[in-house]
Specification:
The complex is a heterodimer of chains A (about 260) and B (about 270). Chain A has helices at about 5-20, 25-45, 60-65, 65-90, 90-95, 100-130, 140-165, 170-175, 175-185, 200-205, 210-225, 225-259. With about 260 residues, chain A is mostly helical. In chain A, α1 (about 5-20) packs across α6 (about 100-130), α4 packs across α11 (about 210-225) and α11 (about 210-225) runs antiparallel to α12 (about 225-260). Classes of the chains: A mainly alpha (about 260), B mainly alpha (about 270).
């Protein structure tokens, strides 16, 4: 990477991080909402552990994987809304007049998602462990869990960038929120894949990538070191990020041509 | 002759205002996919996710609901969509006041309570549209309905009370805040009170802090009565309707206070 590109990314990353940290409206819901659902689900579905074949006797440990993915969904909104605001206010047009490279713009904007992902992962894990969840993979597993969570958050963040560049409106980006929740809801979110007894639901959850992101996180919490599941989780997150980045780059070119 | 007596102008005026406000709100709802689609999709997502994804919960030892887990979750999603139909209408009201349209309503309406009445009628319409789709999907998905026709009517009456109460709650917030930024204030308490009830399993199967909260949460009685209706085994009917009516009356006062606040703001 050339010094100029590194400098461009650094400047935009700094702006993105500061903008994220200065907006409690971005950080607070991304932390509070998943924690509330964690508490409700852990209390309300505790008896699910009595089902034959349930992998742990702690539903809290099982459901603790959900906030990590749910929190990542917020990064779609946050990264997308920030960029959409730049488009709406004309900031992107001004950047287009500079020698800034597209790769620097997109990478820099993702820095906010990265920091948000890090804060979220540390808070979720800390709260979960204090509440009594287990972490079978130990201290090293905590580091891998945080790394996986940040990777997932950044990957989803690229989709937010694409949406913002494609639609150019913060309202349109916000409108995507329910769409992404569908992926979470139609996954093995609340029960393991084997215990999804409704055939059509099992079929959808089996092909839903979110199921495997959840299973990768759960493997660290419940089983320890299941390298196959971990590798699959990282690979899916990387694939989402790569596709999202490619789509965002293409949309950026179109947007700059339009302007 | 009483039939020749002219109608009370205060009532006809209020009805005229309500009709106009309701018509505009319903028109916006039906013609704008950004409003219509989330209203229909959100309850369906919840229903599909809960009834499909959690079907195995019906096999947990001690879970005894004769109509099955689909019907068990249908009642929750029905009441939830009733509440959120009201909240979404509150969003529309807040948006109208933010853009200045609400102020024009206030200037034009002779009896301003007709404005709240109009939004309430629109919220009810939204809820009816959602319930029609939700019920059709639930029946296609094989939901067992053991309740009699009267019991099913009672279930929907309960949902209407929830819708009215939620609309008046959201209207009270919207009229005080007069900005869409008040959205979380309408939405979060509604979400909180709904999810701190026995959503996934009956109250008896809950334990710990969530059992304590659910035991005193008024939504629990509404859910239990609704689930009793659909399974043909009505329970806590009087309490549920008393709660529904009381909440509607309390939130009517709250909305009235909001109207005074909006009037005072000019």
């Amino acid at each position: 990477m050339s010094g100029g590109l590194r400098n461009q990314i650094g400047q935009l990353a700094r702006r993105s991080v500061l903008r994220t940290l200065r907006q409690p409206a971005q950080i607070v819901p991304a932390i509070v909402f998943p924690m509330f659902l964690l508490a409700v689900n852990a209390g309300g579905l505790k008896d699910a552990t009595n089902l034959p074949g349930f992998p742990t006797d702690s539903y809290l440990t099982f459901i603790l994987a959900v906030p990590f993915v749910q929190g990542a969904l917020f990064s779609v909104m946050n990264s997308g809304t920030d960029l959409a605001r730049d488009i709406e206010t004309g900031f992107l047009n001004r950047l287009a007049l500079t020698p800034l490279r597209g790769a620097a713009l997109l990478s820099g904007l993702l820095a906010g998602s990265l920091v948000l992902g890090l804060v979220q992962a540390v808070v979720y894990l800390t709260v979960g462990l204090i509440a009594g969840a287990e972490l079978a993979a130990g201290a090293a597993g905590a580091l891998v869990l945080v790394a996986l969570s940040v990777t997932i958050t950044v990957a989803f963040g690229t989709i937010g960038l694409f949406a913002a560049l494609r639609f150019g409106s913060g309202e349109a980006v916000q409108g995507l929120f329910p769409v992404f929740f569908v992926f979470l809801f139609l996954s093995a979110m609340a029960l393991p894949l084997d215990l999804l007894t409704t055939d059509w639901f099992h079929a959808i959850a089996s092909v839903n990538p979110v199921t495997y992101l959840l299973e990768a996180i759960r493997s660290l919490l419940i089983e320890g070191w299941e390298l196959d599941q971990l590798a699959l989780g990282f690979a899916i997150a990387a694939a989402i990020g790569t596709i999202g980045m490619a789509a965002a780059s293409s949309a950026l070119k179109t947007r700059l041509v339009r302007t | 002759m009483s039939e020749n007596r002219p109608a009370d102008p205060r009532i006809t005026d209020r009805v005229t205002v309500a009709r106009a406000v309701a018509w505009r709100s319903i028109h916006n709802f039906l013609t704008n996919p950004a409003f219509l689609i989330p209203s229909l999709l959100f309850p369906l997502f919840f229903f599909v996710s809960f009834a499909g994804g959690l079907a195995a919960i019906g096999e947990v030892p001690g879970f005894d609901f004769p109509s099955g887990y689909t019907a068990f979750q249908f009642v929750f999603v029905l009441l939830q969509s009733a509440a959120f139909g009201g909240v979404f209408t509150g969003f529309a009201m807040a948006r109208d006041f933010e853009t200045g349209f609400g102020r024009r309503y206030m200037l034009a309406a002779g009896h301003r309570s007709g404005i709240v009445l109009g939004y309430s009628l629109a919220a009810l319409f939204r809820a009816f549209v959602t319930w029609t789709v939700l019920t059709a999907v639930a029946l296609v998905a094989g939901m067992e309905v053991a309740g009699s026709a009267g019991e099913i009517v009672a279930l929907y009456l309960l949902a209407i009370l929830v819708n009215v109460a939620a609309t008046l709650w959201a209207a009270g917030v919207a009229l005080r805040v007069r900005s869409i930024q008040g959205g979380p204030l309408m939405q979060f308490p509604t979400f909180l009170v709904l999810f701190l009830a026995p959503v996934y399993v009956p109250l008896d199967l809950l334990s710990g802090w969530i059992h304590t909260i659910a035991s005193i949460n008024p939504v629990t009685a509404l859910l239990e009565a609704g689930r009793g209706f659909i399974s043909g085994d009505p329970v806590v009917v009087g309490l549920a309707f008393a709660i529904g009516i009381t909440l509607s009356l309390l939130f009517a006062l709250w909305a009235k206070g909001g109207l005074r606040s909006a009037e005072a703001a000019g």
